[in-house]
Amino acid sequence: MRVASVSANNHRRAFEVTTGKGALSLPYARVEPVPTRSDPIAQVWVDEELGSEAFSYSLASGAEGSVHMDAVLEYNQDPGYMRELLVYKLTVEARACLESSQLSNREVIRRLGTSPSQFYRLLDPTNTRKTLDSLVALLSALDCEVEVTVRPAG
């Protein structure tokens, strides 16, 4: 996700980031180096060297830091980002289960009732277009049990 604009709000002690989807904030305490009253932010900008997917800032002391948009999305619990993160984690688990399994790829493909190309797309961690249903089916075909746990944040 591209950063459209960024500003420092010293009153709220947070960066205010605007994207194509809206405005998000990120507290100063979540970045390194941390801006303080004795070392405030001197400048903040959308970092084009990072593909405009991050912003950078400099402090009065000359220290600089950069923040990728993923950190902002994770802090704000963006549903789309959290879904992609869950899909990635399930894909990594499926790959680990496949490696430790005695089943051949052909047997897993047969159990899924799918094509080899679809099977390999499910195992690709960079593919974010797969559904949670398909990953649960893959894990089930690998004789893995999937449990969903919901707990309070913190």
Account of the 3D structure:
This protein has 154 residues and is α+β, with helices and mostly antiparallel strands. It folds into 2 domains: 73 residues; 63 residues. It is built from 5 helices and 6 strands. The strands form 2 sheets. Strands 1-2-3 form a 3-stranded antiparallel β-sheet, covered by helices on one side. Strands 4-5-6 form a 3-stranded antiparallel β-sheet. A hairpin with a 4-residue loop joins strand 5 and strand 6. Helix 2 runs parallel beside helix 5. The longest helix is centred in the middle third of the chain and has 22 residues. The chain is elongated and about 60 Å long. The mean pLDDT is 95.
Throw out a few tags for this protein.
three-stranded antiparallel sheet; 154 residues; 35% helix; 2 domains; 5 helices; single chain
SSE order and pairing:
Blueprint: E1 3-9, E2 14-19, E3 22-27, E4 41-46, E5 54-59, E6 64-68, H1 69-75, H2 79-100, H3 105-112, H4 116-122, H5 132-141
Helix pairs in contact: 2-5
Low-pLDDT residue intervals, each spanning 5 or more residues: none
> What number of structural domains do the residues give?
2
Largest sheet: 3 strands, antiparallel
Distance between the termini: 26 Å
According to DSSP, the number of beta strands is 6
Shape: elongated
Quaternary arrangement of the chains shown? single chain
Find the structural class using helix and strand composition: alpha+beta
Instruction: Compute the CA-based radius of gyration.
Output: 21 Å
Instruction: State the order of secondary-structure elements, H for helix, E for strand.
Output: EEEEEEHHHHH
